[in-house]
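Hello again, I could really use a second opinion on something today. Take your time with it, there's no hurry, and the full record follows here:

___
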Amino acid sequence: MTVLQALLMRAFGRPQGILGRMGGAIMARTNENFGVWVSSLLDVGPTDAILEVGFGPGVVIQRLSALAAEGHIAGIDVSREMLKQARARSATAIRRGRVDLRQGSVENLPFTDASFDKALAVNSMQVWPDTAAGLREIWRILKPGGKIALGFSVHSGQSGEGLTDKVEAAGFKNVRMATAQNGLCVVATKPDQPDRAINQ
């Protein structure tokens, strides 16, 4: 990893310290509209339970909390700095028990099987240490019929090549790619009666 790549990772990939605080402020501004588009692809209902992986500064968490006004929103992020920023943004909803934000990794989600209706990740999957393991974990925590949306803005550096294959390999069905001027998103569904996640 070059010095520039290391700095970018500390600011945006796995935000830490002063660079992480600056990166969080930048992401809150630049990713908000893209995050709104990605969340719209999930057709969020008022009582949905939704998980965001890699919630960053928490702007999408706020959006989901408004859309699922009678539901429950949870999030996981590896960055302590992002956890701090996101918790500050959703402090009231957290106090009311509607939002639950934790530090952790997608490869080991601290949630029970089939506990969420929807899950999403915005500009996150490209920095997961093990993409296949992360997708299997999301498959596990989704209810049968649950939907996943994996969004990548033009700034993420992620191409669309091979993305749908990875999602299908994790056991998801109805996999499709949606595109917008500022990025792309893979949307898929966990089967209503899944046998198991593939490659477990």
Summary: The CA atoms of residues 57 and 86 lie 5 Å apart. The chain has a mean pLDDT of 86. The domain at 31-189 is CATH 3.40.50.150 (Rossmann fold).
